Amino acid sequence: MLVLDKFYFRTSLLTKMKRIFHPLLLPALLLIASCQSKSESKSGSAASGDTTTTAAATEKSDESAPAAKAQDPSEIKVASAATIIARKQVPILCYHQIRDWREKDSKGARDYIIPIATFKAHMKMLADSGYHTVLPDQLYAYLNTGAPLPSKPIMLTFDDTDGDQYTIGAPEMKKYGFKGVFFIMTVSIGKNGKVRYMTSEEIKKLSDDGHVIGSHTYDHQNFKKLKGEDWVTQIDKPTKKLEEITGKKIKYFAYPFGLWNPEGIPELKKRGFVAAFQLADKRDPNDPLFTIRRIIASGYWSPKTLSNSINQSF
Fold this sequence. Notes:
Strand content: 5-15%
Helix content: 25-40%
CATH superfamily: Glycoside hydrolase/deacetylase
Order of helices and strands: HHEEEHEHEHEHEHEHEEH
Number of helices: 9
Radius of gyration: 18 Å
Structural class: alpha/beta
CATH class: Alpha Beta
Distance between the termini: 41 Å
CATH topology: TIM Barrel
């Protein structure tokens, strides 16, 4: 197996990934986990605009009341797709590398590399603005039952196993009592080259500290192209590995590049996943729990731009 150094060549999501990445290109892949198109991340908009606003969409729980401990998803009856889509969306941010830009970083790559000071400013803005982080079990209960959420809920997610998420991201979040979701690409665990990736011990520590660990496939293959034995390589084996590391069931999945297709969703369901996260595309009207929207927090965004993007996108 070739060692990954986290450099993916990206193609535009607007052309829906017409190039398919071949595993033999892995040393050149992983350019910043390339999960969303440059144009989407800069605009922070809702892409095709899945911004349903109905009377039901404004339904929310008492914002003055703290959220109770989330109920186990296995105990919750799944609501109708219409009910889920009608609920007001919770803002969800997606981060990748947290490090200062280097001269060789391309203009496009800097969308996915957030300078350390900028990331810290983002966290401070969220705290100062009264946001409270929520985790997937809380979101799942809210979407299905309307369970209470804290005032100004937001979810912080991190893709691709970068070590700086552990060494910089988690400590900065801790200052504000924030918790996050780390979607792990298992091929990179413990790798240390041009990019240092998290070790199994660090992933376990994040889980033990109250963060959530989710699956992001084995080596960031296009979910839309998975078939046959790919489901074992890209989903089953990574899930088992993460469960062995954390000692917890892995229930949540993030699509590489944000790309998904309706045909693949049943494969996730039968493997025990209860929800999956894409990027800024429109939610599937039949399976909104498996097409939950996120936006990439661009390295170019000031705290004010991030705040505006949250309000515009959700």
